[in-house]
């Protein structure tokens, strides 16, 4: 049942203005049961196992159990995402295989929420009618490459 | 049935969708809208942070042309795409995207996306056109820039509003309608221009899994044909509706193979250890001149593998252990080899964890340590994804400066990436015949189309003319499944079994069964024929009639109803186009058993089609393929 919610950990996001998993699920699967104030996956057969709900849950109440129609039982992959990196723990079905742990960065050089969309490079002709997009042609180049484009390339 | 409030939103540019192309559009449109005093509005059926095909993340950026390095030219990229698509490509569109994609990737880095770098500060390439990234938050970062751009330009965005239909005034698109999947509200967006970027289509065909794993399609199940429907129903000319994509991936969980093939230089073999790319090489002659180009076209690689599968030489394996050993053996000493192995292990697992976490679960559950044993690969199910190695989408204008004297009459009509419907633009999976744009190129195409759309609005700054009677009729039509359910569900003891209606789940199963068995799905090894297609279309016509009896018990189910109507139109266009093209051109995607070979003399051409919503008639058209490269 792809993503599942641990009863003891889910607090229904009472302290937040919206239920995190319900807000984020790209397939509109996570729902808050308003009577129990616990969330659940309303249609596990349509779950992509994208872990968006797992990663956003403020109480780490959501995990994923692999699709039972082709994944043997006993393994787990858990994620803990911070604002800078993500920590993965993999447990194998065989306990003879040492669990694995990986930590990967998820963003670099820009704080969460601070991605400034414009003005990283000058916009050449700044003409609405030209083919030159915002931040071009300067943004086509890096300081490493030898070819410097001073206009949009054509064939 | 509860009352649905009608919310009307007036805007200049409406962006339908929230994925990579839509986010690119939002950034670029906001930049130009701010200068010209225009308003941009974006509508997403989910939450922008995790919507669209990149919701889970990605481990690579698959289009980076790297013009700056001097290693590649625009023509190199065009050659690669044209050959991969067996000659059927709009070179002007491919060039249009390829010449902007590098600046999009550089912006991603400025927005905080970690792109792998080597010791000298150069990007780490997975292959010639691919960059490795730490892409868990790829979509969050791209969405953040889009939202910040909209905020700076006083634009707005709506989440959890599902667009169902275009608004058409004569030959012009004047906006869209949809409904909230959270509250009883119908939304009417009136716009001077509309940009369609609502992704491709999945679950048109029956997937291999039918239990819980039904949702584990390679492309996401929430890509439900909204772009195809919007453009088809709006009367736009469509192209390459026959060019589906079937990726080869690790079996069942559909984890990516790109890092294994490209970065680790792994090979795949049949169960006997035979390399099907070599052993079946004689087959390549049949698909000349494309069969022998390098890299081999994706569909041809599929085909050579499928020949082995049909010969009973399965399982097919990715020889991961051999690849890892080969790389480790290149290390100067044991210590270096050990270090290298550890790096490779992390890279291999991150490849899955960034974009197909299920594959990591499957490997862990089957005790796979890739350095010790190989893993099975398999062709997935057919998907509609114009951004990858498929090509389906709307027929759009190319930019003027990339036309030749020969192409201009055919491929240019005023504004880059505008469909044949005035004021309706398309990008990403919504636009066709411009394959291999992937996530980055879709973002770049969104930017190109958005700038063109703003330019169109400045030239044609007239208030959209929206007929209230049409809105009222559409509102009734959109909400009808709720009314049907309310009227009839109480008459039987089980609301699932009721002769008066069909619920969206069974409707989808019926569509998938038709497509699977008649249009060359997995159970027929992607094989079909004129007779099969004709029978399939007969059954699809019944389904289309029954779509009038779809029933929904709540807003979530109402969305499912319309998603499946959208899929059905994609299916219709697909079957008609396969039937129209009397040859087999992409044998690894589908095989016309009655027309089993390539016919370059008659069919080096686009199959285009157009739907008339007033009559329900389709027009099929052959359009010339004209190259801009010599």
Task: Describe the protein's architecture and organization.
The complex is a heterodimer of chains A (155) and B (630). Chain A has two helices and seven strands; from the N terminus they run βαββαββββ. Chain A has helices at residues 20-24, 52-56, and strands at residues 3-5, 30-33, 38-41, 62-64, 76-81, 85-91, 100-105. A three-stranded antiparallel sheet of chain A has the order 5-6-7. Chain A is elongated, with a radius of gyration of 22 Å. Chain A is mainly beta and 155 residues long. Chain A starts with a strand and ends in a 50-residue tail after the last strand. The longest helix of chain A has 5 residues, at 20-24. Chain A has a domain at 1-68: 2-Layer Sandwich (Alpha-Beta Plaits). In chain A, a hairpin with a 3-residue loop joins strand 5 (76-81) and strand 6. Chain B is α/β, with parallel strands linked by helices and 630 residues long. Among the domains of chain B are: 248-379, Flavocytochrome C3, Chain A, domain 1, CATH 3.90.700.10; 468-623, Methane Monooxygenase Hydroxylase, Chain G, domain 1 (Up-down Bundle). Chain B has helices at residues 20-36, 74-84, 91-110, 138-152, 226-233, 258-263, 276-279, 298-310, 320-329, 334-355, 357-365, 408-411, 438-459, 468-488, 504-518, 530-546, 555-580, 600-603; strands at 5-10, 13-16, 40-43, 60-61, 131-132, 156-158, 161-169, 172-180, 185-190, 193-196, 238-239, 248-250, 268-269, 316-318, 375-379, 393-394, 424-426, 527-528, 591-592, 605-612, 617-624. Chain B has a five-stranded parallel sheet, with helices on both faces. In chain B, strands 1-9-8-7 form a four-stranded mixed sheet, with helices on both faces. Chain B has a four-stranded antiparallel sheet with strand order 16-11-20-21. In chain B, a hairpin with a 2-residue loop joins strand 7 and strand 8. The N and C termini of chain B lie far apart (62 Å). Chains A and B meet through strand 5, strand 6 and strand 7 of A and helix 1, helix 3, helix 4, helix 10 and helix 11 of B.
């Amino acid at each position: 049942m792809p993503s599942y919610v641990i009863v003891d950990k889910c607090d229904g996001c009472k302290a937040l203005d919206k239920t995190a998993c319900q807000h984020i699920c790209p397939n509109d699967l996570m729902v808050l049961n308003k009577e129990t104030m616990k969330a659940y996956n309303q249609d596990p057969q349509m779950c992509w196992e994208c872990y968006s709900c797992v990663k956003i849950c403020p109480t780490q109440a959501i995990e994923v159990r692999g699709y039972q129609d082709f994944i043997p039982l006993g393994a787990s992959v858990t994620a803990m995402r911070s604002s800078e990196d993500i920590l993965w723990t993999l447990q194998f079905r065989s306990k003879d295989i040492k669990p694995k742990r990986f930590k990967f960065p998820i963003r670099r050089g820009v704080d969460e929420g601070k991605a400034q969309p414009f003005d990283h490079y000058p916009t050449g002709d700044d003409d609405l009618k030209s083919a030159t997009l915002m931040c071009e042609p300067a943004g086509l180049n890096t300081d490493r490459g030898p070819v410097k484009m001073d206009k949009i390339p054509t064939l | 049935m509860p009352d649905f409030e009608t919310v009307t939103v007036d805007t200049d540019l409406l962006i339908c969708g929230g994925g990579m192309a839509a986010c690119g559009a939002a950034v670029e449109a906001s930049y130009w809208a701010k200068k010209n005093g225009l308003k941009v509005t974006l509508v997403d059926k989910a939450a922008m942070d995790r919507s669209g095909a990149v919701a889970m993340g990605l481990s690579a950026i698959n289009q980076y042309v790297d013009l700056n390095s001097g290693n590649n030219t625009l023509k190199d990229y065009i050659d690669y795409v044209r050959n991969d698509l067996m000659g059927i490509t709009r070179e002007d569109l491919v060039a249009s995207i390829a010449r902007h994609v590098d600046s999009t990737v550089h912006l991603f880095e400025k927005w905080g996306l970690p792109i792998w770098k080597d010791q000298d500060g150069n990007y780490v390439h997975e292959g010639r056109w691919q960059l490795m990234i730490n892409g868990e938050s790829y979509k969050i970062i791209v969405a953040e820039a889009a939202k910040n751009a909209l905020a700076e330009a006083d634009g707005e965005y709506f989440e959890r509003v599902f667009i169902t239909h275009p608004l058409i005034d004569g030959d012009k698109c004047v906006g869209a309608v949809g409904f909230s999947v959270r509250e009883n509200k119908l939304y009417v967006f009136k716009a001077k221009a509309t940009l369609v970027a609502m992704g491709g289509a999945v679950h048109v065909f029956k997937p291999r899994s039918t239990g819980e794993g039904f949702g584990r399609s390679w492309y996401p199940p929430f890509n439900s044909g909204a772009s195809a429907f919007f453009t088809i129903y709006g009367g736009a000319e469509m192209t390459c509706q026959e060019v589906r994509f079937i990726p080869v991936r690790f079996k069942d969980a559909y984890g990516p193979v790109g890092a294994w093939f490209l970065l680790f230089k792994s090979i795949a073999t049949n169960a006997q250890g035979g390399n099907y790319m070599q052993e079946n090489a004689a087959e390549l002659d049949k698909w000349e001149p494309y069969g022998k180009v390098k890299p081999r076209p994706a569909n041809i690689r599929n085909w050579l593998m499928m020949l082995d599968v049909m010969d009973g030489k399965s399982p097919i394996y990715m020889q991961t252990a051999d690849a890892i050993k080969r790389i480790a053996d290149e290390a100067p000493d044991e210590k270096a080899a050990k270090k290298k192995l550890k790096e490779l292990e992390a890279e291999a697992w991150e490849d899955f964890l960034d974009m197909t976490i299920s594959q990591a679960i499957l490997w862990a559950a089957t005790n796979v340590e890739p350095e010790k044993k190989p893993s099975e690969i398999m062709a997935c199910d057919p998907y509609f994804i114009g951004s990858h190695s498929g090509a389906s989408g709307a027929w759009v204008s190319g930019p003027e400066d990339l036309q030749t004297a020969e192409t201009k009459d055919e491929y240019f009509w005023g504004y880059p990436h505008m469909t044949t419907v005035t004021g309706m633009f398309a990008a990403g999976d919504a636009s066709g015949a411009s394959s291999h744009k992937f996530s980055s190129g879709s973002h770049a195409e969104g930017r190109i189309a958005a700038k063109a759309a703003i330019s169109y609005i400045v030239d044609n700054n007239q208030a959209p003319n929206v007929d209230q009677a049409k809105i009222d009729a559409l509102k009734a039509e959109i909400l009808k499944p709720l009314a049907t359910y309310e009227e009839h569900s109480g008459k039987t003891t089980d609301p699932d079994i009721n002769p008066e209606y069909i619920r969206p789940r069974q409707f989808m199963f019926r569509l998938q069964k038709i497509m699977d068995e008649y249009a060359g799905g997995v159970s027929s090894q992607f094989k079909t024929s004129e007779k099969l297609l004709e029978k399939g279309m007969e059954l699809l016509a019944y389904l289309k009639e029954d779509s009038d009896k779809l029933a929904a018990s709540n807003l979530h189910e109402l969305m499912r109803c319309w998603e499946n109507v959208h899929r059905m139109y994609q299916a219709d266009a697909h079957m008609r186009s396969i039937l129209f093209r009397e040859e087999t051109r992409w044998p690894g995607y589908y095989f016309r058993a009655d027309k089993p070979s390539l016919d370059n003399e008659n069919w080096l051409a686009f199959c285009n089609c157009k739907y008339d919503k007033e009559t329900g008639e389709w027009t099929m058209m052959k359009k010339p393929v004209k190259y801009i490269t010599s």
